[in-house]
Design a protein that fits this description.
Layout lengths: L1 H4 L3 H10 L4 H4 L14 H8 L3 H8 L8 H10 L4 H12 L15 H9 L4 E4 L5 E4 L1 H6 L9 H7 L1 H6 L3 H16 L6 H13 L1 H9 L8 E7 L3 E12 L2 E7 L5 H20 L14
Antiparallel strand pairs: 1-2, 1-5, 3-4, 4-5
Helix pairs in contact: 4-5, 4-6, 6-7, 12-14, 13-14
């Protein structure tokens, strides 16, 4: 988290977003001799109605207390959506604080019971996308949903995960942006530092996306995946907060082709489990799982 460690998260965010807005998007003639990929600092300042010197101080971290009016103007010029605008305002409002002690992420016993009763893929994830518990249908959908795996690490580093997602490019962009949103100002959290450091070393895709400073809420939605046995599945996703963790469920439209395939997958998983005599609950971490 190089930008977080520098203490200039606001400036890093402004610079990254400035580089993503083209002159054409801002209504500025592009010209033929531009050395920056997006807008120049002076152009952002002009469009936001502030002096170039003041904007330079903001980017370089020399002024960390811009007014809400200035931030709203910058959000307009940088064409931020509601989530990105809120993130920008939060960066400016952040103040030095004592390290927060996070409670260990714990899956309540009632949630384990709920997972066992659900007949659709369901699992519990932590703040950093660590899989904390899952049911048999989730594991049948993807072995990477076993407890002990990290969803973002699997998505970026596991070749099977890349083949699994119909739109892997969008999935990775969404997940990385959601991670940055989740981290917020909790940049000294050891789990976040560990995960970001690992992925920055091992994934060029992660480094590219992380440098964009995208932020996004990864909540409900619909996704299409390619299962190696039953084929293409179109599934809805809902994420339900429970205490300090998130219950994630995947389900198809009733009586759809994907619904039929999911029932077939359940039958195959049950048959395989009965044939091997395995009766260990799916939401109990496998000691061999890294």
């Amino acid at each position: 988290m190089k930008d977080e460690e520098s203490g200039n998260r606001l400036g890093s965010y402004l610079r990254a977003r400035r580089e993503l807005v083209t002159p054409a998007q801002a209504g500025i003639p592009s010209g033929g001799n531009r050395r920056v990929p997006g807008l120049r600092r002076e152009e952002v300042a002009l469009l936001a109605g502030i002096s170039p010197d003041y904007y330079l101080r903001l980017e370089r971290g020399r002024d960390k207390n811009p007014s809400p009016q200035v931030l709203e103007s910058l959000a307009r010029v940088l064409q931020l959506d509601d989530v990105e605008r809120a993130y920008l305002l939060g960066l400016a409002a952040a103040r030095p604080r004592a390290p927060r002690r996070k409670r260990p992420e714990h899956v309540p016993a009632r949630v384990h019971q709920l997972l066992a009763h659900l007949q659709i893929p369901a699992f519990v994830e932590g703040r950093a996308f660590d899989v904390l518990a899952s049911n048999a249908m989730a594991v049948a959908l993807s072995p990477r949903l076993r407890p002990g795996h990290n969803r973002l690490r699997s998505l970026l580093l596991d070749p099977e995960e890349r083949a699994f997602h119909q739109d892997w490019t969008k999935a990775t962009a969404d997940f990385v942006a959601a991670l940055r949103t989740t981290i917020g100002d909790d940049t000294d959290n050891p789990r976040y530092v560990e995960l970001v450091g690992e992925l920055a070393l091992s994934s060029q895709r992660f480094r590219t996306l992380w440098a964009r400073h995208d932020v996004r809420a990864l909540d409900g939605g619909t996704t299409t995946v390619h299962h190696p046995v039953v084929g293409e599945l179109r599934l809805h996703r809902d994420k339900l907060p429970i205490d300090d963790v998130i219950l994630v469920v995947y389900y198809p439209d009733k009586d759809s082709d994907s619904d039929e395939k999911l029932r077939l997958l359940a039958a195959l998983a049950h048959s395989e489990s009965a044939g091997t005599g395995q009766d260990r609950p799916a939401d109990v971490p496998d000691p061999k799982t890294p």
